[in-house]
Write a structure and sequence with these properties.
81% helix, 0% strand
């Protein structure tokens, strides 16, 4: 492995997890960007085109007096499916990349290797995420605190499913085991990262929202019609696709943090670095 290799499995403090996540992005940014451009961008383009066409159908159906008809359109369901696949594929892609990085070392694998493994994990990750969402949702309905607790306690399931190839039962148990006695530390990490992500999302979406509302804000006579025309303009569609791409890049950062926290907790519970140092000392003495 090269000297600048970043050890994923290592005990790290709260601040170190965030710092090393940025270091990883700085180091692997060009390769991750290439993955985005070759594997994620085409999906975003398809999603944006389907979404734009669907929004046109919504507007036409609304003005024709039959808004329910839009849900009979195959573009609606196709747009939903592509959006879901894109969202979960980016999770599996990032985690798979870091899995190969940890196993083979920096620069010792082709980024294309992520595709075959990541695609096969999209459906299991979707099922796991769906079940976790239902559990957290039920916990929130019963009482907000159980929902928050379950959201954090099950946060490592996706990483365990992809990074370790664990089944649902095994990843479920693994997540609870890792979070045990580390719940507050993990919650604080997610809270800080969540504020960072939400702030950036606002910075990205507010200009686009103001651009779409420009006719109404400027007091146009027929503001609604001009807003609809604005949403159909090529400039708005391109800007919307750029914003979606940047949002997915931010989501990728969240999962990079998640993988480092997973390995941080795993090393705390099952220390391997210390054992390897002891083995090295024993071999040197021999």
């Amino acid at each position: 492995m090269k000297s600048d290799f970043i050890q994923l499995r290592r005990e790290r403090s709260f601040g170190d997890v965030i710092t090393v996540s940025f270091e990883f992005i700085k180091q692997e940014g060009p390769e991750l960007l290439r993955l985005f451009l070759t594997q994620i961008l085409p999906l975003i383009v398809v999603t944006v085109l389907l979404g734009a066409y669907f929004s046109f159908e919504i507007q036409d159906a609304t003005f024709s007096g039959d808004p329910k008809a839009v849900f009979m359109s195959p573009f609606y369901y196709l747009s939903v499916l592509v959006s879901i696949f894109t969202y979960y594929y980016i999770q599996t892609m990032v985690i798979t990349y870091m899995k190969l990085y940890a196993e083979k070392g920096k620069g010792n694998f082709r980024t294309e290797e992520t595709f075959s493994y990541a695609v096969g994990k999209v459906f299991p990750v979707f099922l796991v995420s769906l079940l976790v969402t239902i559990m957290a949702g039920l916990g929130t309905i019963l009482c907000i605190v159980p929902g928050i607790y379950l959201a954090v306690a099950t946060s490592m399931i996706t990483v365990s499913t992809v990074f370790e190839g664990a089944s649902f039962d095994a990843s479920f148990s693994r997540s609870f085991k890792l979070i045990k006695h580390e719940w507050w530390n993990t919650f604080l990490l997610f809270f800080v990262v969540g504020i960072m992500v939400y702030s950036i999302f606002l910075l990205l979406t507010i200009p686009l929202m103001l651009f779409g509302l420009k006719p109404w804000l400027w007091g146009a006579k027929d503001g609604l019609q001009e807003m609809i025309a604005m949403s159909r303009s090529p400039i708005y569609i391109i800007a919307n696709s750029v914003v979606q791409m940047l949002q997915l890049v931010i989501i990728a950062f969240v999962y990079i943090v998640l993988v480092f926290q997973f390995n941080n907790l795993a090393e705390k519970k099952e220390p391997t670095e210390l054992m390897s140092k002891i083995e090295e000392l024993d071999s040197d003495e021999a």
